[in-house]
Please model this.
Amino acid sequence: MNTQTDRRRRAGATATDIEAHYDVGGDFYALWLDPGLTYSCALWDGIVGSPARTDLLAAAQHAKLRYHLDQAGITAGGRLLDIGCGWGSLLRTAAEETGVRHAVGLTLSADQHAHVRSLGLPRVDVELRDWRDHEPDDPYDGIVSIGAFEHFTHQAMSHEERIGAYRAFFERCAGWLPPMGRLSLQTIALADHADHDDSVPDFFAREVFPGSALPRLSEIATACEPYFAITTLREDGADYARTLRGWSARLFQAREEALRLVGPDTYRRYRTYLRASEIVFLRQASTLYRITLRRWPARRTG
Ligand SMILES: C[S@@+](CC[C@H](N)C(=O)[O-])C[C@H]1O[C@@H](n2cnc3c(N)ncnc32)[C@H](O)[C@@H]1O
Model:
């Protein structure tokens, strides 16, 4: 392990960890995600019907993307940073619907990076880069990060090390925003009452997000406090159970094609992970938070 990899290992998921999960291939994910390839919990407010239906899944993902753009205060002519941009659905919505002046996406996945570039979105740049290495020329008007925070620490880190890693993230985000600028964050989290030796954290680290660990709400609150006020908090674990039910059913419907693309072992692993994750959310051993954070008016010390 070289020095850079070692540094990343201590901080959370490495590019290798990320690629182990995401670079199974966009074609495989396209079989069961919505057409925009959004790979995170959707927002199902007011949407009635099966989550496996393409139109409903797409509507719920679109509602989620709009929610985060609104929460981050992104309007026409604004500048947006998307930390963990996946296959580019938020960037596309910001460019085509919100009319941003400039949007930048960061990902650690080479497959996602190539995919977003191939979309040719106007006024959008995508970087194959860790947020720790991002150095923008100008501040952003708002920042969104959906489903990436889970990758910023790993299981072997102590409580203090995790707080330090999360705090470093919030410090960087605050530095890229004007006073009162907003960060809209979505993350899976462990229920604060869950035991530290619970099998749920191990399950996610082993099967879902290698080299990663789920935060607790208390850790997020502690870590962000020097830089941000939490202004809105939504607890939407039921939305994730529903999203996972939809993905799982869609993968089953597309099993012939999935088996051809990735073979039986990967197909089975994903089916198991999607079904097991749904149960974890239904049992409330983990949940989903959408958190709006507003930078303090002036940088506070201590
Ligand atoms: C679950 S996907 C979510 C993608 C997208 N936000 C969505 O909702 O479809 C997590 C994303 O976070 C990115 N990511 C994880 N750790 C990162 C880091 N340290 N720096 C930049 N991106 C990171 C991954 O490459 C991936 O694009």
